[in-house]
Design goal:
By secondary structure, this protein is mainly β. Helix content is 7%, strand content 53%. The chain has 3 helices and 31 strands. A hairpin with a 2-residue loop joins strand 3 and strand 4.
């Protein structure tokens, strides 16, 4: 040892060894670094809104801004386009008690979007009219793709549709996909944006507008199944290249459960499959929760009761995280609200046509349950639903009981235009990579 220490290199070697040992101990015993926070979407206020409704001669459109409700006439059956500040909502109702168009039908004026999904009966069993409105100052180039039980059926007939600025086009889907008895429709723009709506009149009777469906996702909640009699038919599409094995749960007024004999549904890639869930929900108001490893799109057909049955539609919808407003309501309206996961609570405000808004009231929904909220204001009014707590989904349902049969329409509670979620921004070259 003495010769090693006396060696001129011995002491530096010992120092290096000691420091290495200290650093080794420090490395092994160091605390774990804190996990990097996952970027979350930011909730920001909407500054301006454009909304478009398909035309209907002689009707008036309800236009709601927070706390106020006005009505605008629709002229010459041309599309109604309105622009305003954040929170703008618009829509209208039609009611016919006889003729081929007998039924109660409600439509929400939709904002122009690059992609829209619709799910419902196909042109083989219904008269389906697709309305495309370009409310922007730039042209739009759109592709309309129709998926049916046998797969994609529209081919090239719906591709490359040029819609000029300010133009409205009505398309009879029988000219694009005449064989489809059930369908999912995607309207995608290569450039530009379009406001999309579809009016569906069943050959067996009944009419309504198809609501926009949530885009393909691995978890979809379809709210707003009203209680009572009549058929309830679930439609699920797997628009991708993989088959979907869908698990289904119902959330009724009394329980959350897998429906016996309807716990799952296999959907071939690129197709639409239907499932009768009438006995599964047993006449109760409900929502359906669908989960699948493969992204899916879903909607539901609601058939009324009586000698002449009406029809209504609901579809997969986001939770009420941003709140929701329905501009047009009337006698016979109610909310069908569902709390998923835990208990939920919302605040409801009624804005009448005349006078000051009513005092808001709160509604509690037990965990894993669906609750009906009957609305009793007279005349026409707007309805605002604001989240307080929990994961809540819902729809507004209107029923008109006639001797000849029930008239019905349903509007899922779409996200309010008062707020929006901006996706997180990351420092990556991907944003400029072709």
């Amino acid at each position: 040892m003495k010769p090693f220490v006396e060696n001129r290199f011995g002491l530096p070697v010992l120092v290096v060894v000691a420091l290495a040992a200290l650093y080794g101990v420090a490395y092994v015993t160091r605390p774990a670094p804190p996990a990097a926070a996952t970027p979350q979407p930011r909730k920001v206020a909407v500054e301006s809104v454009t909304a478009a409704c398909p035309g209907s001669k002689g009707e008036r459109v309800s236009v709601n801004l927070p706390g106020t409700l006005t009505f605008e006439p629709m002229r010459d059956a041309e599309p109604y386009v309105t622009k305003g500040p954040g929170g703008l909502e618009a829509g209208y109702l039609t009611r016919a008690t006889k003729g081929a168009g007998r039924g109660l039908a409600g439509v929400r004026c939709t904002e122009p979007a690059p992609t829209t999904w619709l799910v419902g009966p196909g042109p083989a069993d219904a008269d389906v009219r697709l309305h495309l409105t370009n409310a922007d100052k730039a042209p739009a180039l759109a592709d309309v793709q129709v998926y049916a039980a046998e797969g994609p059926v529209s081919g090239d007939k719906g591709t490359g549709l040029e819609i000029a600025p300010g133009e409205h086009r009505e398309i009879d889907l029988k000219t694009i996909a005449p064989s489809a008895d059930i369908m999912a429709v995607s309207v995608t723009t290569t450039f530009g944006r379009l406001a999309v709506a579809a009016r569906t009149t069943l050959e067996t009777g009944g009419v309504d507008w198809l609501p926009s469906a949530a885009p393909p996702a691995t978890r979809v909640v379809v709210p707003g199944l009203p209680g009572g009699g009549g058929r309830r038919e679930l439609l699920v599409a797997a628009p991708g290249e993989n088959d979907a094995q869908v698990r289904i749960k119902a959330v009724s007024e009394d329980a959350e459960y897998a429906m016996k004999g309807r716990e799952s549904l296999d959907v071939p890639a690129g197709s639409v499959t239907s499932l009768d869930v009438t006995t599964g929900v047993g006449g109760s108001s409900a929502a359906l929760i669908l989960t699948s490893p493969t992204p899916i799109v879903a909607g539901l057909v609601i058939t009324g009761t009586g000698g002449r049955s009406d029809v209504a539609f609901t579809a997969g919808t986001p939770a009420l995280d941003l709140g929701s407003t329905v501009a047009r309501n009337g006698p016979g309206s109610k909310l069908v609200l569902t709390a998923v996961g835990g208990p939920g609570r919302v605040r409801v405000e009624v804005v009448p046509e005349k006078g000051r808004p009513d005092e808001p009231f709160e509604v509690s929904i037990p965990a894993g349950r669906t609750k009906n909220v009957n609305l009793k204001p007279k005349g026409d009014y707007a309805l605002a639903v604001t989240p307080v707590s929990g994961e809540v989904y819902g729809a507004r349902v209107i029923e008109d009981h006639l001797k000849t049969g029930l008239l019905i329409t349903t509007q899922p509670l779409a996200p309010s235009r008062l707020w929006t979620l901006l996706p997180p921004l990351t420092d990556t070259p991907d944003v400029v990579t072709p």
